[in-house]
Design brief:
The complex is a heterodimer of chains A (327) and B (671). In chain A, helix 5 crosses helix 10. In chain A, the strands form 2 sheets. In chain A, strands 1-4-5-9-8-7-6 form a 7-stranded mixed beta sheet, sandwiched between helices. In chain A, strands 2-3 form a two-stranded antiparallel ribbon. Chain A is built from 11 helices and 9 strands. Helices cover 39% and strands 20% of the residues of chain A. Chain A has 2 domains: 77 residues; 220 residues, BirA Bifunctional Protein, domain 2 (2-Layer Sandwich). In chain B, helix 4 packs across helix 5. Chain B is an alpha+beta fold and 671 residues long. The longest helix of chain B is centred in the C-terminal third of the chain and has 19 residues. The chains are: A alpha+beta (327), B alpha+beta (671).
């Protein structure tokens, strides 16, 4: 008696394409039913000689067992398939909220990430500050006209020191220079306040200030790190220009402009070599150490980066505006 | 400072276009903006010397490495000292005082139309030819002048601070000003005739009938002029220049120039120039070390090149040694006082853009000082669907007191931008309520927002700031879904959200304790602790403190990120069991006044063998449960580290639990 070699394989193959219980039982009858090869082969055994009969019976039993097992295990899968409730998977999801960081946080973080990779330490500093840290220690003597560039909010206080809302994050430089070891590589992000409000100025905005005090720091180092930062930030080769300017706490001072598409040259940050008066005031040996500092307005960078045209939007709590910023 | 382009072009004797000329000045440090036929110069406060055509001319020619060839015509005068004309000048406020007396003026004509247009386009109104001429010379040379009607002055003049406490003067234009004792004044024998460097009196001002004048040119010290004009609400072109500094050697030249130009518009009989000075200003000399400069800048410039550049800028070599060159600083460059100032001049002229750049240098590796949890918390909230907002910190007195207890003293601004919001916030919630309100008005119905920022407090001495992270969840109506499930957000949704947030950040030992109501929360409120440290509060918002900005039940929280040190959340890892977990449920009935917290702490402290965790899976009141009682279904999970637990071992532990609950809480076991 000849047993087909691929009987099991073809059965397994056919089982795979079975979609319903009815199809399954039809196929099962084909392989294990009355008219199947196995059942009819058993009935043909009696026609064989007794020595061949034993071997053939053995082989047939193995085959029958294997087929039975195959159909048994497949039946569970078929049952799962037929239990499946078909969904309209195109229906909407359950309600969910999409969160996001504020664009000013995102841009601040982008800037911090660059300078953190250069081991600049992060200091947040005080938003309420004394006149000493905000002005005097930064070489803005009392009655200096440069103070008029800063419309300052003062606090009502009976104490001797004059308290104010910091007008720049440079106050944090002074704290760090007085309190930290040298060399110092630092970044101070935070909110600053000016008593000024119109369509392009807000009484509060965000600044990030950087300071390096080390031996042999040069103006070329300052230029190098700022150009590299700007190219990293905008992720392209930038046309950058440094232009003389004036800040009481740096000498020389510069404004940095970038060429920005059709808008032409845009002022993007201020910087300079730390004024010796500032270093001396913080007990730093100016024969050994020099420093550079830079500061940038985060709102301005965010406006350029995202193409926002009205600075007031950032503080408007307008969800329709904020929904446009991905996390 | 606004300058008419065509006038400037002629003065500088250049053919550069308006755009190119603006670019040149921007490049040397005077940022320019083009406004029609004008160029507006943004002159930094240290460069008062550039606030004139002459000042701009010096910069323009230095930029081209040339010397200006133009000499302005003047009528030379001899200086006379006479106490009958100028009696005393107060040296603490005035360096020198010049008064040119011109008598017998007649046939006075207007200035030519070019000069008049030039003056007007600089934003200075035309008043009277004699005054206009003073303003013209100021714009040309940078020395402000004041013209008195000589017939109305009772000479001699004193330049001094007012002696009496109350002095009032009617200034040009008719306003009466109460002159403060800190203001330097020009006084004649009848009283104050001018507030020095700011404005003259109406009484001694020139008019169309004036036939003799006293023209003043002086050096008032910047430190006595600064902030004075603002006090009187009189920021004038003169005060702007004086507070930035005027060349102390310019006064005689300016008067001689005035006299020359006066000759073009009027005839006069006689002229005399009187002066008085306190201390002659010393010429400054500054040493310049080329090697130090090169180290500072990153350049390798030769000494000869550096000297050439500085000479073009008007600095003369005073002495020279092998290492140093000493430069004499011209009188108009009062901003130059240290060697680094010369570096700036040199680099400015050399061109910042021509300085080679170096690759970014990294600092030494140090531990970051900012070690609190704000960044992580913020990201956690974002992933839970919260949107971050930012607001100004200014609040009204009412909303401050709604949200802060009486012993929280507010930080108050002396000069608020909006008088109704003079205080700095002591809570972030006012802005969050306003944010809910404005977005609900726009039609948003479900809002999840948070803000991170400082809140401020006045202390006995000084002020403190602390970082808050506050959020609010608000549903104006229950969220509907197409599958007909109605999703409601309640206190326990918030509790789950905050617990998930803190535990995801690794804070496993969070304790939530029932708290007493504190604004902005009502009585359904929990304090959040890590150990003994309170790190926040969460609960239902008390709608009565929201100033009607929030209409329906909202849920909120505040977390203090500075109280959570990142190093405190490092987990201790233990070996896990490889044996299976077993669970058992029980039903108990207890007095409703017993809080779940009591059940929880009883079991937690009961050292039950093999118990790994337990949870409340159901509560029930009503049928079969006596009034004032509640049924709780608790699920206990057991596991051993060393073996699979036997039924008898689990049963024994369950018995211990049941006894505890019966004995301590009088709980009844429900079958």
């Amino acid at each position: 008696m000849q047993i087909p070699q691929d009987l099991i394989e073809t059965a397994a193959l056919k089982l795979k394409s079975v979609q319903s219980e009815a199809e399954f039982f039809q196929l099962r009858a084909q392989y294990l039913g009355k008219k199947s090869f196995v059942v009819s082969a058993f009935s043909k055994l009696r026609d064989l000689q007794s020595d061949k009969k034993v071997n053939a019976a053995k082989e047939l039993n193995v085959l029958k067992n294997n087929l039975t097992k195959l159909f048994e295990t497949s039946f569970e899968d078929i049952e799962h398939k037929s239990d499946l409730k078909k969904l309209d998977v195109t229906l909407p999801a359950d309600p969910f909220f999409v969160g996001s960081e504020h664009p000013i946080t995102k841009i601040s973080q982008k800037i911090i990430n660059y300078f953190s990779s250069l081991n600049y330490q992060i200091f947040s500093g005080n938003e309420i500050e004394t006149d000493f840290y905000n002005f005097e220690a930064l070489n803005f003597p009392e009655n200096h006209p440069a103070r008029q560039m800063h419309d300052t909010f003062y606090l009502s206080s009976s104490s001797k020191s004059e308290y104010l809302l910091r007008t720049h994050t440079s106050n944090t430089q002074v704290h760090a220079m007085l309190e930290e070891d040298l060399p110092l590589y630092m970044l101070s992000p935070g909110r600053v306040f000016r008593c000024d409000s119109d369509t392009t100025h807000l009484p509060m905005f965000t600044q990030i200030e950087g300071l390096v005090v080390d031996e042999d720091v040069t103006f070329g180092d300052l230029k190098g790190v700022l150009i590299d930062f700007l190219e990293d930030f905008f992720n392209e080769k930038m046309e950058v220009r440094f232009r003389p300017s004036y800040f009481p706490f740096t000498e020389p001072s510069a404004e940095v402009d970038i060429k920005f598409g059709k808008q032409g040259w845009l002022e993007i940050l201020g910087c300079g070599m730390v004024h010796p008066n500032v270093l001396n005031g913080c007990n730093i040996d100016t024969k050994k150490f020099r420093g550079f500092a830079f500061g940038m307005g985060v709102e301005r960078l965010a406006m350029l980066y995202y193409g926002v045209t009205d600075i007031r939007e950032f503080y408007s709590s307008n969800l329709d505006f904020l929904n446009q910023f991905p996390s | 400072m606004k300058i008419q382009y065509s006038y400037l072009k002629n003065f500088l004797n250049t053919n550069l276009s308006q755009k190119k000329l603006s670019d040149v000045f921007t490049q040397v440090g005077f940022e320019c903006e083009i406004e029609g036929n004008l160029i507006e110069f943004d002159i930094t406060p240290n460069r008062g010397d550039a606030l004139s055509l002459r000042g701009l001319e010096r910069e323009f020619y230095a930029y081209q490495s040339k010397k200006p060839s133009q000499k302005l015509e003047t009528s030379l005068l001899k200086l006379i000292q006479d106490k009958k004309i100028i009696n005393e000048i107060d040296g603490s406020g005035c360096g020198n005082y010049h008064l040119m007396l011109v008598k017998g003026l007649q046939k006075i004509k207007n200035l030519d139309s070019k000069k008049r247009t030039f003056i007007e386009s600089a934003g200075i109104p035309l008043i009277n030819p004699l005054v206009d001429l003073g303003n013209y010379v100021m714009l040309e040379l940078g020395a402000p002048m004041h013209v008195f009607d000589l017939a109305k002055l009772a000479l001699p003049i004193n330049v001094q601070f007012p002696q009496e406490k109350h002095n009032s003067v009617t200034v040009i234009g008719g306003d009466i000003k109460d002159v403060q004792s800190s203001s330097l004044t020009i006084q004649d024998q009848s009283g104050i005739q001018a507030i020095a460097g700011i404005i003259g009196s109406e009484a001694s001002s020139v008019s169309s009938s004036t036939s003799s004048i006293a023209v003043e040119a002086a050096f008032f010290r910047p430190e006595v002029i600064v902030n004075q004009a603002r006090k009187y609400g009189l920021a004038t072109d003169a005060s702007h220049r004086f507070e930035r500094g005027v060349d102390p050697e310019l006064q005689q030249l300016a008067l001689e120039r005035y006299l020359f130009l006066l000759g073009q518009i009027a005839e006069h009989d006689s002229v005399e120039l009187y002066y008085s000075y306190s201390i002659k200003t010393k010429k400054k000399n500054i040493k310049f070390d080329i090697a130090r400069f090169n180290k500072f800048s990153g350049l390798s410039l030769k000494a000869s090149k550096a000297i050439l550049i500085l000479k073009n800028l008007g600095f003369k070599v005073h002495a020279r040694s092998e290492k140093n060159v000493t430069f004499k600083i011209p009188s108009h460059r009062f901003d130059i006082s240290i060697e680094e100032d010369l570096y700036e001049e040199l680099l400015r002229s050399y061109g910042y853009d021509n300085i080679p750049t170096s690759k970014p240098k990294a600092g030494p590796i140090t531990n970051n000082k900012q070690n609190h949890a704000l960044g992580n918390l913020r990201l956690g909230l974002v992933h839970s669907g919260f949107k971050e907002l930012m607001h100004m910190p200014f609040v009204s007195r009412d909303s401050f007191h709604q949200l802060n207890s009486n012993n929280w003293k507010p930080a108050e601004l002396h000069n608020p931008i909006n008088e109704n919001e003079p205080l700095l916030r002591g809570s972030l919630f006012k802005s969050l309520f306003a944010a809910v309100n404005s977005n609900v008005k726009k039609g948003h119905t479900s809002i999840k927002v948070f803000e991170a920022g400082n809140v401020f407090k006045k202390e006995k001495s000084g002020f403190t700031q602390s970082l808050h992270l506050s959020g609010i969840v608000y549903h104006h109506e229950p969220q509907q879904t197409w599958s007909q499930k109605e999703l409601t957000y309640n206190f326990f949704s918030l509790k789950a959200e905050i617990s998930k947030l803190l535990q995801t950040l690794g804070m496993q030992n969070i304790e939530l304790q029932k708290a007493s109501s504190l604004a902005p929360f009502n009585e359904n409120v929990l304090d959040i602790f890590i150990g003994k440290q309170k790190i926040g509060v969460m609960g239902e918002i008390d709608l009565s403190v929201t100033e009607k900005l929030v209409k329906k039940q909202a849920h909120g929280f505040v977390i203090y990120p500075e109280k959570i040190s990142l190093s405190s959340v490092n987990p201790k890892i233990v070996k896990t069991s490889k044996f299976p977990l077993s669970t058992r449920d029980i039903n108990i009935v207890i007095d409703k006044s017993i809080s779940y917290e009591e059940v929880e702490s009883l079991i937690s402290q009961g050292t039950i063998k093999h118990l790994v965790s337990f949870s409340l899976i159901n509560t029930f009141e009503g049928k079969d449960i006596p009034k004032g009682y509640v049924s709780m279904t608790l699920r206990f999970t057991f596991q051993s580290n060393t073996k699979s637990l036997l039924e008898s071992e689990i049963n024994s532990s369950m018995q211990t639990i049941l006894k505890l609950l019966e004995k301590r809480l009088n709980a009844k076991i429900r079958s």
